[in-house]
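Subject: Sanity check before I submit

Could someone independently write out the structure tokens for this chain? I want to compare against mine line by line before I put it in a report. The sequence has 97 residues.
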Amino acid sequence: MLIRYVRMTFQEDKVEEFLKVFESSREQIRAMHGCLYLELMRDVNQPSVFMTHSHWVSEDDLNNYRDSELFKSVWAKTKPLFADKPLAFSVESVVVV
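---
Independent answer below. Compare away.
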């Protein structure tokens, strides 16, 4: 299983617009083949900083989503709202306690 984190910093006046984009696309993202889990989190001290946390069966499944028309559409709406370059990390669990 692949775990993906994407940290995004938005322009303060664009946060509500981002939340609408996420709300309108989250079920479609979650329904993508290989997506096991999707969560949106918000920094408690920086309200314009968000992070998505998703689980994918494989890196191929994540890449298929990233190559999809859905991703291209969501990204086209999200990218202009950023205040800083997003940071993305793909990880796998090593130890679970």
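---
OP: Matches mine. For the report I'm noting this point. The chain is about 35% helix and 30% strand.
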